[in-house]
Amino acid sequence: MADASELSGGEESQEELMTPAELIAKLEEAWLNEKFSPELLENKSELVECVMEQITHMEENLQRVKKGDVKASVHRMEIDRIRFVLSSYLRSRLQKIEKFFPHVLEKEKSRADGDPSFLSPEEFAFAKEYLANTEVYLRNVALKHMPPNLQSIDMLKAVPEPCLDSFVFLRVKERQENILVEPETDEQREYVVDLDEGSQHLMRYRTIAPLVASGAVQLI
Amino acid sequence: MDPAEVEFLAEKEMVKIIPNFSLDKIYLIGGDLGPFNPGLPVEVPVWLALNLKQRQKCRIVPPEWMDTDKLEDIREQERKLDTFTPIPSLYYMELTKLLLNHAADNIPKADEIRTLVKDIWDTRVAKLRLSADSFISQQEAHAQLDNLTLMEINTTRSFLLDSLNYMYKLRSNLQPGRSQDY
């Protein structure tokens, strides 16, 4: 079972111990990254589970406290705040799944065995159902009235892909050297920049996508 | 991002309060707070400070930078330089607003502070608009934006990013051989 202290920091080789406070900080990072990245990021279901456990645990304790206790009200306020971040995080993932569902499912299909899944089991079920329902809907309202040769639709082509060339704002958490900046126009040349720790930048998501995944930069 | 969400993040900042009640340590998920003793200053997150203040259980000690002399210096600096000056708090605008709206009676010269912070904000946002303008007209692909706060970025985020994305689409459609988005 997942517990705050058992959560590893992404890589299985090095088991990192995390305090509940660090757990919440990680959740907030994941929340902001998910909010600002144009594509769906890797799921953090382990993190979500740990936070849920913390909240449930705290709520159980609060059941036993009598009404009107000052401390309990402070705890409730904190829980409400964490819950807000958690649901906002999950909601922004669902929004992206609804927006890019064929591509999300395609990515999931082409993932090699052993690679971590981008979707949690629940999100995967949701995406599949969403795809099926959309197809049924389109068939019922339009496609079945079309000539037979026009009745099929390729969802991958019908739904726009996430635009990885979007610009994003980011803050650097670990210094990075030689990040290639592609030119905007044909007259310009490409060049490299160093990203110093703590500095903030505006650039294309595609260039720094791996750094977001590894946690070296934070989208803001 | 909704401005309220930026404010939500600002509410995590720590602020000193002087409670008028006593209470043991509170073991929150995000860390321990207290103990609270009447008259003894203690650090708590802003969300709790405002709640206690509203229930008249504490006095809020304004952050060090929330001081007319210091803010005047920053305003001068900000007007003199073309770049963004380092700001004492990443959430200066939100904190000023929150604390002045809910605890103005604990902050000396509250009205002056409000004006000063507004001046600083206006100067910075004007600079931000100027640099966004030159970023677009020079078709840059990268910009460094140190010392900009989240709320400042937020004022221009959707407008700037959407325009950049549309311009990119228009341009990549102009150049044959580049793939289109749809």
Structure, described:
The complex is a heterodimer of chains A (220) and B (182). The longest helix of chain A has 40 residues, at 70-109. Chain A has helices spanning 20-36, 45-63, 70-109, 121-141, 155-158, 205-214, and strands at residues 167-172, 176-181, 191-195, 200-204, 217-219. Chain A has two domains: 4-162, Up-down Bundle (Methane Monooxygenase Hydroxylase, Chain G, domain 1); 163-220, Ribosomal Protein L9, domain 1, CATH 3.40.5.60. In chain A, helix 1 (20-36) crosses helix 2, helix 1 (20-36) crosses helix 3 (70-109) and helix 3 (70-109) crosses helix 4 (121-141). Chain A is mainly α. In chain A, the strands form two sheets. In chain A, strands 4-1-5 form a three-stranded antiparallel beta sheet. A two-stranded antiparallel sheet of chain A has the order 2-3. The model of chain A is unreliable at 1-15 (pLDDT under 50). With 182 residues, chain B is α+β, with helices and mostly antiparallel strands. Chain B has a single domain (3-158), classed as Methane Monooxygenase Hydroxylase, Chain G, domain 1 (Up-down Bundle). Chain B is 52% helix and 13% strand. Chain B has six helices and six strands, in the order H-E-E-E-E-H-E-H-H-H-E-H. Chain B has helices at residues 3-10, 46-54, 68-80, 92-103, 110-137, 150-174; strands at residues 14-19, 26-28, 31-33, 42-45, 58-61, 142-144. In chain B, a hairpin with a 2-residue loop joins strand 2 (26-28) and strand 3 (31-33). The longest helix of chain B is centred in the last third of the chain and has 28 residues, at 110-137. The model of chain B is unreliable at 177-182 (pLDDT under 50). Classes of the chains: A mainly alpha (220), B alpha+beta (182). Strand 4 (200-204) of chain A pairs antiparallel with strand 6 of chain B, so a sheet runs across the interface.
